[in-house]
Amino acid sequence: MSDRKQKTGVKSRKSTPPLPPLIKGGNGGVKVATRDAYGDALLELGKKREDLVVLDADLSGSTKTGKFAKAFPGRFYNLGVSEQDLIGTASGLSLAGKLPFASTFAVFETGRAWEQIRQTVCYSNLNVKLVATHSGITVGEDGASHQATEDIALMRVLPNMTVIVPSDGNETTQVVNAIADFRGPVYVRLGRAKVPAVMPDDYEFRIGKAYTFQIGRDANIVAIGIMVSMALEAARILKHEGIDAGVINMATVKPLDTKTLLTAAKRCRVIVTAEEHSVIGGLGSAVSEFLSENHPIRTSRIGLMDNFGCSGRPEELLKFFGFTPENIVKTVKRTLRK
Amino acid sequence: MKFMKSGGNADISFLKEKARLLRMEILKMLTESGSGHTGGSLSSADVVTVLYFYKMKHKPGDPEWRERDRFILSKGHAAPVLYAALALSGYFDKTLLKTLRKLGSPLQGHPCSKMLPGVEISTGSLGQGLSIANGIAMGLKLDGLTSRVYCLLGDGETQEGQVWEAAMTAAHYRLDNLCAFIDNNGLQIDGPCSDVMSIEPIVNKWEAFGWHVIDINGHDMEAIVNALNEAETVKLKPTMIVARTVKGKGVSFFEGKVQYHGIAPTEEELEKALKELGEK
Lengths: 338, 280
What we know:
Chain A is an alpha/beta fold and 338 residues long. Chain A has helices at 2-15, 34-48, 60-63, 66-71, 83-95, 106-112, 114-122, 151-156, 169-180, 227-240, 258-266, 283-294, 314-320, 325-337; strands spanning 32-33, 52-56, 76-78, 99-103, 129-132, 162-164, 186-189, 194-195, 211-214, 219-223, 245-249, 252-254, 270-278, 298-304.
């Protein structure tokens, strides 16, 4: 990321007003994995909220719920390798008046236990928080079996479910606190890899509220998760090339912030979505569905093109599958030419 | 506010009479709806009667009462037995039973907790109730409450893998405030459990999973009462009561007939059945 910034960002700074710097926010610009921010936030929340209980399915070391487990062993339940039971038990704890956070890898949480989430958590509208880590291809070497690239689609389709995808450590911390105060089922999608801080220091997360970095007259890039920082980088490159592109962080994928989306769509020619997820059923679908019915405008979706991920180093995989600022630039230009 | 008493000396003839009334309500509502699960509702009627009219402490006028005992109907297709028990306990008016499975009714085909007070959690997809019961039992323990959690499973239901995940969890976390039942009527939709997918040896399986197991005749009121009282004395282990039952129990021409798993009685069958049950 820093290499790219030097190649493109430095040049553009002279001719155009810069977007907010990429490496910013809490932690003095040090990259943080959203799962690490989650582990820390959960620990802090545990000190404030006596009703908080945390459940995991034998992955507490990876999901970082282990920190909470160590501090509050009486309020931590390891269910072993059993995701269906994980969701059921969390549901029961919520029925007993507790605030359960249930964590495991995204592919297992939303896939293996999808029906439990549907039948129990969503149908009965329970106050269960599903915070899954290891989403997307940046899981890396473990390969497609462990890379959730359909989880947003699986969760978004469920009535009563709220779906949130934080983009950096700071936002993750705020999301954890926000959903603790919110009543109802929530799915939070976190990643394994370290990501740059993108949200400004004074940013305040609110469920259902997107953050607009800047509205572009030519194009607006609607992104989530790790794609937000890449969208910002792409906007810099585009600006340098004379294309005015804005960036929106649609951290809450459901309910979609249609007001912000519509405002942006009305002021530009094309919308491009970017997510580390299949182009089917995720952010791209949500945005396209809304725009096609309310403000038809040319759109393109960046994501996995109906295929599985594979093994490799995260940074290799990002390039291989086109999760790069360069691909966003290319896509924006192509969409403008359509 | 009516408070349902818990425990003490059981009035067996009172319970038998309640079970008879429960069965009649089950048959009437199923005939009225024209569809639903007759066999498994009747086979579990005695167990549910003892829970609602003897063992559980609950307040029909205050379904959210924090200290109530909880009942989870994991075999959600037996919804009629739960609805009948709730109506006869006074959670809602008996006339509501006529709306079973109809558009706009809170009495959904399978129990929906968002629509009907007294239903602890929506069920219907098999294999999920025991995990939920575990979670409630954990929560009650965290709060230092002495309330107990009861969960009713079907025998065919134990073919679901999640049941065994939950079986491990309950034993691992020593949930002695949890008592589950298996309504072991031996039949599932496609035929006898022994043909479809054997679940035997039930008792040994649950014992091997770390449970205290009590094997009883699930239509013997005294045996059900005694088993529930015994379960309360067991420490550091969950209890499984294997209730050996007869599908369609109480109506001679439904008993042991697999075809009555998922169909409702006709008007003629209802008339005959009510006569057998001694409707006055």
